[in-house]
Sequence to fold (84 residues):
Amino acid sequence: MTPQEYDILDELYFICTLEQLLKNLTMDDSELRNHLEQLFRKGWVKVFYKGTEDEVESGEVSMGQFENYHFLATKAGLKAHNTL
Fold:
């Protein structure tokens, strides 16, 4: 796990938007989107449609739509985060 992934997961104990993450982390938009995509592919982050409880399926996640999503660490992500 990279230091950036650790910092992101640290924020995702509770559901957050891209905007909230950008505000709380010292990463630019592009860097954060790349790390979120990697965390999602690892199964460490869940993605939800903004304003709903509907989880986004893996084939539907698009970096260009990240401002329309909410993010939350998965059980596997929290376990990885806490083992460091």
Remarks:
- The chain has a mean pLDDT of 89.
- Strands lie at 16-17, 45-49, 69-73.
